[in-house]
UniProtKB/TrEMBL annotation:
Belongs to the bacterial diacylglycerol kinase family. ATP binds at residues 24, 31, 43, 91, 100-102, 109-110. The active site is at residue 84. It comes from Amphritea opalescens. It comes from the Bacteria. GO terms for biological process: phosphatidic acid biosynthetic process. GO terms for molecular function: ATP binding; ATP-dependent diacylglycerol kinase activity; metal ion binding. Keywords: ATP-binding, Cell inner membrane, Cell membrane, Kinase, Lipid biosynthesis, Lipid metabolism, Magnesium, Membrane, Metal-binding, Nucleotide-binding, Phospholipid biosynthesis, Phospholipid metabolism, Transferase, Transmembrane, Transmembrane helix. It catalyses: a 1,2-diacyl-sn-glycerol + ATP = a 1,2-diacyl-sn-glycero-3-phosphate + ADP + H(+). The chain crosses the membrane at residues 71-94, 114-131. Substrate binds at residues 24, 45-49, 70, 84, 113. Its EC number is 2.7.1.107. This is Diacylglycerol kinase.
Amino acid sequence: MLKTEQQSLATDASALKGIKGVKRLVLATGYSIKGFQAAWQHEAAIRQETLCALVLIPLALYLGQDSIERILLIASVLLLILVELLNSAIEAVVDRIGTELHELSGRAKDMGSAAVLMALMIALMTWGLIIL
């Protein structure tokens, strides 16, 4: 990352601290969109899971017998994307620190991956129990 980009990010972060109300919400939403765009660009798993969500969410609305089932089906898919985003963030931070092998770096990445696996199991179990 270039020094000017680092200064810009630091300025953006410190500027957000003093802002309140709707303006802060708008800026935070912009940062969230920027984060999702970065994940889409750099993480194949996010692209795959988002494309699956675009199919599964309408399917959940159709297959769910009532509001609770629809919410559970949709939430399990969104949970998987949420956990994948957090895992990608962990990986990015670990990689920023250094790419050399280190026990703690490996442990952090492995735990993030395990969290994704758990979210996937929750989604599969939810869909399996409701649909079957």
